[in-house]
Structure formats: structure tokens, C-alpha cells
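[#protein-structures] MJ: dropping Methylated-DNA--protein-cysteine methyltransferase here for a structure pass
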Amino acid sequence: MLKRTVETPFGDLTLVEEDGAITALDWSRVAHQDRSALLDEAAKQLEAYANGTRESFDLPLRVAGSRFQQDVCRVMSEIPFGYTRTYGEIAKELGVPAQSVGQACGGNPIPVIIPCHRVMGAKGLTGFSGRGGVETKVALLRHEGAAGLLI
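AK: finished. C-alpha cells for Methylated-DNA--protein-cysteine methyltransferase:
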């Protein structure tokens, strides 16, 4: 397992690479500087996202967990930059309860790259499992120009 920490306006984010795929992204208090071609590219893409010159990621990802967790992460990955969906919309698409989608969003192992911050409750803003909680979610949505959706 290799790790690389990237400083961003949303906190220090540590990318985790295992067997040729990004498997996690964590808010870290400890800096890691492992090197690999994949971590170099992932760090480059994350820095470009943070400075506003990239809107999507093109990286090999591997989501650990159940088939359901993987399905929710796939649907979240399809939400475009600057847009949001609700737990209910995703639940309807997958034919499951909205509460289950919320739990899967909270269990997203690769936040920001798999944009769980783009998922809202039926009445608007909800929690966020990343460091800083809902304030970090708001910062990510504002960064993407989705601030008008927070009302």
C-alpha cells in the first residue's frame, strides 16, 4: 500500500494506492510522500481539481465493499461537476431505500474523487463524513459552483 498526501483548500488529502488502483482518500494529519506513476497522476489530478482547472477524474479506482456499495459509488461518480442529486433519486434508480443510499454515501472510501459531497437530502444540505463535516461539503459544493443549490 502506497500513500501520497496532497495539500488542498479542503484539507490535506491522502490518496491510497493498492495493486494499481486508488482504493481510498482520507483527510490526513500525517503527510505521506510515497511515489508511483499512479500516485503522481492522482496527485496531479487532485491538485488540478483543487485549483479549479479540472472537473472530473480519470483514475483506476477500486471500491471495497458490497456490490451495493460499489453500485452507489458508481452512480455518485456519474454526477457531473457542479450538480447534485438526492439520496431519493439515487435510491429510485437503484430500487432501494434512500436511507441505505445515505449509509453507502457515508461509507464511500474515495470521497472527492467519488463525489459523495454532491448528494443531498430531499430538503437540501445533509451531513458529510469527511473531516470538517458539513462545512467541508459546503466548501466543495461552492468550489464547484453549486452553492445556489444549498438553499
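MJ: nice. Residues 37-50 form the longest helix (14 residues).
AK: one more thing. Residues 73 and 125 are 19 Å apart (CA to CA).
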